[in-house]
Amino acid sequence: MQRILSLSIVSLITLLTINAQQLEHSTLWKIEGKGLEQPSYLFGTIHITCNVSLDDDVKKALEETTLIVMELDMDDPSMTSKMMSGMYLSDGETIKDYVSEDDYTAVDSLFTNHMGMSIALMENVKPFFLTSMLYPKMLDCPMQSFELELMEVAKEQNESIEGLETIEAQLKVFEDIPLKDQYADLVRMAKDNLAYDKANFAKMLEIYDNEDIVSLLEMMNDESFQTVSGHQEILLENRNKNWISKIEDYAKEQPTFFGVGAAHLAGENGVISLLRQAGYTVSAVTE
After folding, report:
1. DSSP labels for 117-154?
2. How far separated are the first and last CA of the chain, in Å rounded?
3. Cβ atoms of residues 27 and 208 within 8 Å
4. Which domain holds residue 21?
5. Which end of the chain is less enclosed by CB atoms within 10 A, N or C?
6. Domain count, the chain
7. d(C-alpha 279, C-alpha 274), whole Å
8. Which pTM value belongs to this model?
9. What is the tens place of the pLDDT at every residue in 194-216?
10. How many CB atoms lie within 10 A of CB 243?
């Protein structure tokens, strides 16, 4: 449960990001140069999907590296308690303080239909937790995750797992975004019973399968998601910039396999561009 909820939060953040530049169609990139003795690899994941089969080039990159680093250290035993401590609204607030009676009824129907429980049981839960609970419902298949698959690989190869940021840092992303925008997205999801989001998610999976990381970001430039509007710096750019020095440190220490949401790769302030600006050679790995 801890891992599924963590993945849902990560997925929500990834789904709400945009920035683009011209790049090859690839989700796997080799990091070389600037004194690195051995190359490291950058892999763009999708956190919730139907198929996590790893391509041969990804398997080879995993064999050539000795450490797996993801957005979060998914093995952190304290993750659940840390998430729970940031799960609730403060000062006695509830969802009723942010939405109309009609909108509340729509959200209640959404959770009753898809989660089997009334929103009345979760009125004081923050909106990004509520939204993240619904993401597995957008798949027409049993949920799989590249992060969980990479954890299995780490276990098989007897390797450690590290994280580029803490769960506190990921939770703060949504602390810094106005609640009214987050609730607006939840209400929109409720009013068409996830229809728009399911169609959008299916399109995203198709683009991901084509490894078109630029188009993946471009399709996310969608005004239907108010949480995105005006919050790009919080959702994506600041996090990418914070990761670069950490990626450098890991790569200098040992050949490392970095697995982060594919939405972080492209763009002027994407991880690929920022690593290149830092002096590294970052090249697409294509079969």
Report:
1. S-GGGGTTB-HHHHHHHHGGGG-SS--B-HHHHHHHHH
2. 36
3. yes
4. 2-284
5. N
6. 1
7. 9
8. 0.89
9. 999 999 899 999 999 999 999 88
10. 20
